[in-house]
Structure formats: structure tokens, C-alpha cells
Design brief:
The structure is a homodimer. Chain A is about 35% helix and about 20% strand. Chain A has helices at about 5-20, 30-50, 120-135, 155-160, 210-215, 220-230, 250-260, 265-270, 285-290, 330-345, 370-385, 395-405, 430-454, and strands at about 50-55, 65-70, 75-85, 105, 110, 140-145, 170-175, 185-190, 195-200, 210, 295-305, 310-315, 315-325, 350-360, 365, 390, 410, 430.
């Protein structure tokens, strides 16, 4: 006989697609109404499956969707976290189908937010439905889905601090990460932090003709390029003084253990069309994306960028520059070091403004906890293989915040793939992964409730 | 009694403003219809003042407006050159009044093209009218106004090669340059050449999440910045091998002569809001903008440039890079050197495409010719001061082309000011300068015709 999940999977997918049609882009004010519609949609779906006391909790920004099912105060409580906002979708012209008109192609759901994080959040909604249909939830469940993760979760921090009693739980469950491959389950146990800045370099007070002025004024684009270039040395070490001071250096044993994870530089290159491997000297590709901090320019602009040739010297040039942090760097420390250093390397012929955006702290989560084991056992049941603990490259700043504010560890039970192109054109999420998540999550609750009782 | 010019100056200005309302931007295909309208407008105005055989000569691009007044084949012939196309006007938001809704404020005409070059071309139309009203033109005049100067004049070169007989003349007269100040007339006798490129750097084959991939892939923006930064050394010399090989080095005497031109670094800084002087070590500001070649980034773009923070590693980064050339560099030589060098400095982890745009040759025009003296005498009459010969920083590539194809020298009788903000937001042209041009040009024709007869 088909399981409830098997019998209802078409409907589950169809509901997700409806949600993905709402462009809940938090970074751009013009989508504000859509962000609210996406929150309302989620509230309705949660109520339908039996989550109680569902509300849109107002914040200074986008509302947080909160609901709960308290079956017995003596049972353990799991707090599920996720986000319903999505990254901006531009450049739109690089999408093969429009980002907010989801389609399923070759077993994958294509849409902005398909994986990050609406698709993964919706697994939780439907896993809850499955549990309710198959006899009820085995522990207390609280669900908190925010709408500002892609812009720094500032209001979530305030909400959590002000609602510690309401959010009381034993562990936090988050699906916003990935697995190594569909036949190689894994659970992330380390995440990099983030320090993000926008910089502005001003030369002359207006755009100038490069023929009349070229050679005798500081061109802010050339200067910005020089400043950015100087942030790495010839070995791709970051040159900001003090940047590595607090970096947790892994032992040879730990690095040897990491090196056992399946990885091929050749396949890595092919998967994203690289002509060569690149990165900090002395570290492997896996180490470069997990245990080492990095600095990347995420955007740059200035001068004439239209068709044809314009011989202008721009007044201003801009860049967005971010650093991924590792334990035990802190976002505040690195933000201050960056700002000070970047201002210090500006020549006298330009003025520089550094504007920090949001940051996030690096974290390592325990692998010997009841919750981690419950998650690993759940994956072993549904994938038929024990998951590998991995240290990921991305940042989920709220994991560190939950630890500080609520004293709770998080389990990162995510089902995405590196190849899902999150934050990129053509973001997608495997139908396999979506359904596997819905299948796995109930096992986690049952394993966790049983182990906590024991 | 008021002169014809004095009696008609309001109408002359009003006609120019009508022409400036037509956004004849040649770099952007969406203005193609306007470019044609601007050519038609000019044709009608030329016919009205008595220019004969006026036609729109078709080319593979925008038409060339040609007309003539042959009064006597035994008299000398002056070929007037100018352009009716204008630079793109963006960024529009930096204009205090819309670029194609001209206004006169504080004695200045504000509009894209007010000075470069519609305003200066229109002086010739009205100078012709003045001559006709005051007894006729004293020599043969041919007028050739093109519509692709701001995108490289490619079709003008073909037109000139194919119409050598039609364009036969004794000298070329161009008003597309400036004077030092309204009380310090000057005539440009040297112009820098141009080599202009668009470069594209590709890292991964799609945009990536900087958390998952950051540190292990070549970020094309960081790499582009490094490549651009390496094009200058610490003394702001250009590092392209062979770049200076053919540069005409001026003697100590010539440099001492140049240094006599009125200039204050302090005023220069204040005029464009610079915090410090900048440029190639060992040269003065005036030398940096005239006798020395330069390299400037005119535009750069890549990654996320919208509001807020997006943690992306872009697949591609772009820049527009141009070099101003001096005698005896050639555009072809420098274009090849740049392309070869820029490709050679790309690391193996990225691919680079260099696409040359148009170029132009540096020129020095003679100061001992009949035509130069006729122009200098004309200015002395109308300004009450002998003009200073100067070497300018801009490029008028067609001056070198005219010399090669037609064997003719050009006289650069321009009336703009450095502060006119050509190629920038809020381009403007002084009403004083516009009228002074119309007053001066007839003197040039009379002086030239008289001297050639003698």
C-alpha cells in the first residue's frame, strides 16, 4: 500500500509551487507586498495541517511566522527554524525559465527559493502533516519561520531575545543546508561566519572627460581595483593585519580526517566550468571552503557600463566585499579590522567610505548530542547510509545567535545540493530531495522523542 | 548700430536649443530615430542660410550631412568638420535639469551636446549666415558634419576615402576643442590618440554562492581588479611592455616653454573637488594631461550591484579600459600591445576576452601655417588677446585620418572650456562662447582668403 506521502506527493509539490510564485525578495523594497503575501500563505498552510496558535508576529521589518503543537509539556520540544524570504533573482536574463514561474524539469523544481529556503521549509510543513495523519506528533513542535534571513536576520535577534519563554525548547532543527550527494547523505556541523561591506571610493566631484583630465586625477575605479587587489597576497592569503589572529587552526589529525570525504578536484572543476583550481596556498579545495576564512568581491560598479565606448573618468566607484569567517573569528572583530584597513590603504587622492552590512558568527555544532544522533539515524533509515559530518562554507548566522540567546544547539538537517545554484540564476531543488526531506523529518522527531524519554 | 549677430542672437540660441532637444545619442541603438531627426534638422538649417547641395550622405551607419558654397574655383576652400551625435547622457539622475530639455542658466546652455559638438557646429551654421548677410562668403566653404564621432567615426573614414574629389580643400576647420579661459584664448595644436577596449573575465560558468564556493574558485571580480591594478606601477607608470617605446619625449626646453602656461594645481584641485594631485611621477599636471600617455578604466561592472547584500560569486566581470596616446604612439600598435599583455597576465583559473573598440591617432598640428595664423589673428581680433598654442588631452581621431587620406592639416578653432562637463552630467556651453564663436569664425575665413590670395 502506498504511504500517505506517496499518495499525496503531487499535491505537496503543487502547494510548494504556489508558494514559489510569490516573489518574497527581502532585499528589495519593491517586493514588500509579496513578502507579506508569502508569510500569509505559509500561515494558512500551517493552520491547515494542524499547527496551532499560528500568528504573524510583527517586527520592525518583515513578520515572523510562528506556530506550535504542544502535545504534552513533559515531552521534549523541538523548535524548527527556517526562512520564507528569498535572494534577489537578477540577472533575470540568465534564467532559462522565469524565477517566479516555477517549473519541474528533469526531476528538479526551478524557481528562486526552490531550495533556499522555501522548498526546505515546506518539507517541514508537509512532514508535520504526515505525522498528524499517521498518529500525531511524538513530541512538542514549535515552528518559527522568518522573512529577513537574506538581509541579515536583524529583527529575528530582537524577537528571540524578547520571546525566550515562548521559544523555550530542547533543540533547534534547521533545514537550510545540503548533503554531499543524493547517494551520500551528510549533516553540516560547522558553518562559516560573515562580515559584509559596501565600499565607495570618490575621486573628482563629478564625472570627467578622460581626454581632458586623464593622467592628472585619481580615477576612483583604478584606485578601487588597486585597493581590492592588495587585499590578497601572491599566495591568496588575506593581507588585512590581524585577520588570521583568532582563526582556529585544525590539527594534522583533524585535517587528515577531513581529507577522507569523497572529493575530486577534477569533478569540482567540471561541475562549474573552471579552467583551474584557485585558492589559498597550502590548503585543499575542501579546506578552502570550510575551515579557512575568505574574502570575495560580490559586486563592483562604476563609470560607463552601457553599450559602446564612453571616455569618462567616473567620480565614484563602488564594491560589495564580504568575508567568510571561521571559528573563532567574530563578525564584529573582522568588520572593525576590515574597515580600519580599507580606509588606511586609500591614497590621499581619494576619499573612502566603508559601510558594514550585516554579519554572522561562525559555529561548530556537536556531533555527540542526542539530537545529532537522532538526525543521523533518521537519514540512515531513509537513505540507507550513515551521513557524513561535514563543515560547510556558508553562513547561517542565527545558529550562533540561538546558542547565545536561547542556549540551544542546532541540528542542520538540510537536503540541498551544492549544484542547486542557490543565490544564482536557475536555482532548483530536486523533487527527490524535497520528498526525501518529508520522509526523513518524521523519523528525526520519533528518534529524538524516544531517546529523550530513555 | 547693432551688428547682424547682435540683432539675431536670441533666434540663434533658440534654434540651437531646438536642435539640442533631439537626443542624438549614437552609442545606443534606441536613439537611432533621433539621430536621423538631428541630421534632418541640420540639413534644413544649412539650406535656410544658403549652403548649397545639402544632402544626407548615407553610410553603413548614421548619415553624414554635407553641403557647400563654391563661390569661385580659383579661391581657396575650407572644409568644416563637426559632429551632430552626442555622448550618452546617463547617469540621468545626476543632471540638475533633464539632458534633452535644454535650459539657459547663469549665461550657460545646459544640455547633452550643448558644447560637444552641436553647440560648436551650430556656430558654423550661424557664422555662415552672418557672412551671407554681410556680403557673402570670402572663399569656398564645404561643410561635413558626421553622426558617429562618439562611437569612433568608422564610416566617416570610408566616406572620406570614397569622396576625395568632393572633399578637395586647402584646410580643415574644426570647432570641437576649447580655450583656456574666456579671457585667455588658446588654440589646440596637439591632441592625444585613443585605444579603447572592453574586457571580460570569466571564472566559474555560473554565479555561485560565496559561502559554499568562496575560497576555492577564482572570483572574476577580484581577478579583474588584480589585473587592472597591475597595469600601473607604484610611480603610476604604465606597465605594459613596450608601451612607452615610441613616446615622443619632449626636450627640457619644450617642457620649460609649456610650464609658462597659466596653471595652479590648487585651483585645479578645487575646480573638481580633488583631495590631492595624482599622476605619473616626474611630470606636472599639465604634462600629465597633454604630453604623457595614460590608462584609465572608464567603466567596471560585475556581480550584485542592487540594494542590500547578496553573497554571490559572479561568473563574469567586465571593464572598459582606454589609453590616451601621444605622438608617436599609434592606436594599432598600442591596441595590440594591450591585448597581448592583458591576456598574458590572466591567471590560468579564468578566461579573458579583450574586445578593442575604436581607436584614434595622436596628432600635432603646425603653428606656422597660413591657416593657424588666420585663426590666431581672428581670435586676437575678437578676444583682444593673442591665443596661446596648447597641447590638449582629448582625442579627435579624425584629424590624423584627414591628414592621411586628404593630405590636409586641421585648425582646431574651438571655444569650449574644460569646465563645460562634456561627457558628464550637466554638460553646458557658455552663451558667451557660442556667440564669440559666431563672431570669430567669419574673421578666420576673411583672414585666410586674404592671406592665400597674397
Amino acid at each position: 500500500m502506498a504511504s500517505y506521502l506517496e499518495s499525496n506527493q503531487e499535491r505537496f509539490l503543487s502547494e510548494l509551487l504556489d508558494w514559489l510564485r510569490i516573489p518574497s525578495v527581502s532585499a528589495d523594497p519593491k517586493f514588500h507586498g509579496d513578502v507579506l503575501r508569502a508569510a500569509e500563505y505559509l500561515k494558512t498552510r500551517l493552520e491547515e495541517v494542524g499547527v496551532e496558535n499560528v500568528e504573524l508576529c510583527p517586527t520592525a521589518g518583515n513578520p515572523i511566522v510562528y506556530g506550535e503543537k504542544i502535545v504534552d509539556p513533559s515531552l521534549p520540544t523541538v523548535l524548527v527554524y527556517g526562512h520564507y524570504d528569498v535572494q534577489p533573482a537578477d540577472p533575470y536574463e540568465l534564467w532559462t525559465s522565469p524565477p517566479f514561474e516555477p517549473v519541474i524539469k528533469d526531476g528538479k523544481i526551478y524557481a528562486r527559493g526552490a531550495c533556499d529556503d522555501k522548498g526546505q521549509v515546506y518539507m517541514h510543513v508537509k512532514a508535520f502533516e504526515v505525522l498528524m495523519q499517521e498518529g500525531g506528533v511524538p513530541c512538542n513542535i514549535k515552528i518559527m519561520i522568518e522573512g529577513e534571513e537574506e538581509v541579515g536576520s536583524n529583527n529575528l535577534g530582537i524577537f528571540v531575545r524578547e520571546n525566550k519563554e515562548k521559544l523555550k525548547a530542547d533543540v533547534i532543527l534547521i533545514s537550510d543546508t545540503g548533503i554531499l550527494a543524493n547517494d551520500t547523505p551528510s549533516i553540516e556541523v560547522g558553518l562559516r561566519g560573515l562580515s559584509y561591506h559596501e565600499v565607495e571610493v570618490t575621486g573628482p566631484n563629478r564625472d570627467l572627460h578622460s581626454g581632458l583630465y586623464g593622467g592628472a586625477v585619481a580615477n576612483p575605479i583604478n584606485i578601487l581595483c588597486q585597493m581590492i587587489a592588495s587585499l590578497h597576497d601572491e599566495n591568496n592569503h588575506i593581507t588585512i593585519p590581524g585577520f588570521y589572529d583568532n582563526v582556529d587552526e585544525l590539527s594534522a589529525e583533524e585535517r587528515a580526517e577531513m581529507a577522507k570525504a569523497p572529493h575530486s578536484d577534477e569533478e569540482f572543476k567540471q561541475s562549474i566550468g573552471l579552467t583551474d583550481i584557485h585558492g589559498e596556498k597550502g590548503y585543499s579545495t575542501l579546506e578552502r571552503t570550510s575551515i579557512r576564512p575568505t574574502l570575495d568581491v560580490n559586486g563592483i560598479w562604476g563609470g560607463y557600463t552601457g553599450e559602446g565606448a564612453k571616455t569618462v573618468i567616473a567620480s565614484k566607484a563602488y564594491a560589495k566585499i564580504s568575508m567568510r569567517l571561521v571559528p573563532h573569528q567574530t563578525s564584529d572583530e573582522i568588520t572593525e579590522l576590515f574597515q580600519k584597513h580599507f580606509e588606511s590603504i586609500a591614497p590621499a587622492s581619494v576619499t573612502v567610505v566603508v559601510k558594514p552590512h550585516h554579519g554572522g558568527e561562525p559555529v561548530v555544532t556537536p556531533t555527540d548530542s542526542v539530537a545529532y544522533k537522532a538526525a543521523a539515524d533518521a537519514m540512515e533509515t531513509t537513505f540507507g547510509k550513515r551521513p557524513i559530518p561535514t563543515r560547510g562554507g556558508g553562513s547561517i548566522p542565527i545558529v550562533a545567535m540561538f546558542k547565545t540567546e536561547l542556549g540551544l544547539d542546532s541540528v542542520l538537517l538540510g537536503f540541498g545540493l551544492d549544484s542547486d545554484a542557490i543565490h544564482s540564476p536557475n536555482e532548483h531543488y530536486g523533487v527527490f530531495n524535497f520528498l526525501k526531506g518529508i520522509e526523513t523529518i518524521p523519523h528525526f522527531y520519533r528518534n529524538y522523542a524516544a531517546a529523550m524519554k530513555a
